[in-house]
TrEMBL record:
NCBIfam families: phg_TIGR02220. This is Phage conserved hypothetical protein C-terminal domain-containing protein. InterPro entries: Phg_2220_C. It holds the Pfam family Phg_2220_C. It comes from Terrisporobacter othiniensis. Residues 150-221 form the Phage conserved hypothetical protein C-terminal domain.
């Protein structure tokens, strides 16, 4: 996510904002607060809807509504994320946050995916942007933040203690992102399999090697089953030839 500010004083611990958004009567207080919060974040902060909703009492739907308000009025621009080297779309979105709103039509380029996407340099519309705003690069990239978010989610739900710095784990997550899957997809897979396997004989497979492997897409699209309270010996003996390491 890129953030366009009027003033940015790195030595100042306080947040310095243009008041345009705060005085915009077309915005809800929720959207105004979220906008101020986004502008207060460090330059290298990676922003995800799932992460934002975990930082307040609002749920995912409420957080998404606030983001969409800001998009509709030009305070946020959202575009499909693409690989910087190949130019191919890789899933997810890149965001730009503005202190002063850009043209509304420009900000509504939300879900349009074209063969020749626009440059990262945004052409500013009718609403003026102060001269020489500093554009801070904060795009959805493969970095330590996405690794830590995924593993933190797994550890919290499955009561495990995996490390996001493990090379094998990072390799699995990176492979799935390169396939076009998003952070929300990782969260859904984790939630699906924890719901199905926790408290059963398969709980030991709640691990990165299994969840983020080649069956990731199957896990993502499966219908969540209610887990059995206990797997009986008869049930286990009924499937003696199954290699559960490949599940």
């Amino acid at each position: 996510m890129a953030i366009v500010r009027v003033i940015k004083d790195k030595s100042n611990p306080y947040v310095m904002l243009n008041k345009t958004c705060l005085c915009d009567e077309k915005l809800s207080w929720k959207a105004k607060g979220l906008h101020s919060y986004l502008l207060s974040l460090p330059d290298d902060w990676q922003i995800y809807i799932e992460d934002l909703k975990n930082r307040s009492k609002d749920g995912r739907d409420s957080t998404t509504t606030a983001v969409n308000e800001l998009i509709a009025l030009g305070y946020i621009k959202r575009t499909p994320s693409k690989d910087e080297k190949t130019g191919k779309f890789k899933g997810g979105y890149d965001y730009e946050v503005y202190e002063m709103p850009i043209e509304v039509n420009e900000s509504r380029e939300i879900n349009r995916v074209t063969e020749n996407p626009k440059s990262d340099k945004t052409e500013i519309g009718k609403n003026p942007i102060p001269e020489n705003p500093k554009l801070l690069n904060n795009k959805l990239k493969l970095n330590n933040n996405i690794y830590s978010l995924v593993i933190e989610k797994l550890n919290n739900l499955a009561n495990t203690s995996y490390k996001s710095t493990t090379k094998k784990t990072q390799s699995l997550i990176r492979a799935r992102v390169e396939d076009g899957f998003t952070l929300e997809d990782f969260y859904k897979v984790i939630e699906n399999k924890v719901s199905e396997w926790q408290g059963t004989e398969y709980e030991k497979y709640l691990r990165p090697e299994t969840l983020f492997g080649t069956k990731f897409e199957n896990y993502l699209n499966q219908r969540v089953k209610f887990k059995q309270e206990k797997t009986t010996k008869e049930e286990i003996d009924f499937y003696p030839n199954i290699n559960f390491e490949t599940i």
